[in-house]
From TrEMBL:
Family annotation (InterPro entries): DegV_domain_contain, DhaL_dom, DhaL_dom_sf, FakA-like_C, FakA-like_M
A Pfam family hit: FakA-like_M
Protein name from the UniProt record: DAK2 domain-containing protein
Classification lineage: Bacteria, Bacillati, Actinomycetota, Actinomycetes, Micrococcales
Domain DhaL: 9-199
Amino acid sequence: MTLDVLDLPALRRWVVIARADLARHAAAINGLNVFPVPDGDTGTNLLLTLDEAAREVAALRLTGLAESAEALARATLTSARGNSGVILSQLVRGVAEIAGRGTGEQLDHDDLRQALARASVLARSGVARPVEGTVLSVASAAADGCADGSSLAEVSGRAITAGREALARTREQLDVLREAGVVDAGGAGYLLVLEALDRVVRDDPSPADGDATPEWLLAAGPVSLGAAGSDDCGPRHDGPAYEVMYLLDDSDDVRVERLRGRLDALGDSVVVAGGPRVWSVHVHVDDVAAALNAGVGAGRPHRFRVTRFDVGAPPPRPVAGFGMLVVADGLGDLDGVRGSQVALVDVADVRDQPGAVVDRLRDLGGDEGVLALTDSTAAAEIVHEAAAIVGRVVHVVGSHPVHVLAGLSVIDGDGSLVDAARDALEVVDEAVVVLLERTGAEQTAQVLDRVRESGAEVVTLVTGAGAQVPAELLDGLAGVEVTVLESRARGWALAVGLE
């Protein structure tokens, strides 16, 4: 029986059917993907976006339409993969905004019309340089086509008809689509989700053609996604080398608009969508660090995802061996760190420029990977996140300033990365360490107690910027070999290592 309104069970069925359809046809959508980058992942990105969001919302066990739609909108935004995933989140956002305006737990035909119209506006406003012949054209046509629908079935049906016509036109609107003989991949995915909605409205959960690929998802001619510079004759990619995505919190519309402009100057395919509490940022760039740093001025960027496009020339192969990196607070001038053939990043720079570690990891030589020594768990987390972005093998060792010094003292730069990491871990595991935010009688007694408990014969004291080793501490260490080093660290007063 055809539905007159959409309620929470209908919303859930829509998500389930759309996810099943995307899973069934992801490969076909990938085969259409030649714009803006011929990397063949649009179908996969849409499926992963909706799949992760659906699992997240299901775990919440919500019982209201408005709160469920809002949760799904947020989850779809934060799970978004690629610009197609971000734009899909705006379709869900349109539904959530309209559901949130009402007092009931249902959406009628007028609500659905408004939701599709709002989705089109949100999607277009998030794109720095809207291009016709893309998913934006399909979303606009679907919204306009159902404007005079007088029932739920008329609204969904007319949206589908107008969307299909707009999708067919995309083949002629963009030269790259015409040459490849395909329609826009993002538009095809968007239409597939709308068709799932139409089947829910008509209470017809099974596609009429079963598992067959719909005709409008098939390419009109042969399509090859060969890499640029290869012998294949498929679409070539001459644009930026990386796709950068992250979430942005603690921002506002003014700063988001400024960010959108900065990213547009750095690269292309810029989409910044969401709000008012979280935004999803997407851009294609060559300078990954600049894209990440641009987010710092707009709020708090996090959950970074960087993908190198496989359609260009491969990156240069690193030299043999492994690279070494130190991420620490003000240790660069210490003997054992200075001149130790390592790349150094100060954590203060990381706070202001989150791309600093990414740049270092990418530039470091060594085909085995990188050994990173860190002075805190926070620094270690930064390196782990940067390693995931760059996609390099990185062994991270250390959570204390003395760990950095001890690790550097035992690393054999001519050995293997695995051996170096093992040696550094062994000396770090054996180290007894103390970190003091300030010095005084209480802290002196604490250190002396640890010395006595450990039976240490060698003590290393590293002072932070402007701090002094208490005379009482030095007196108490009489008879023990003591090394005092002065650092520029700003986050602590005294680091102590016992051997």
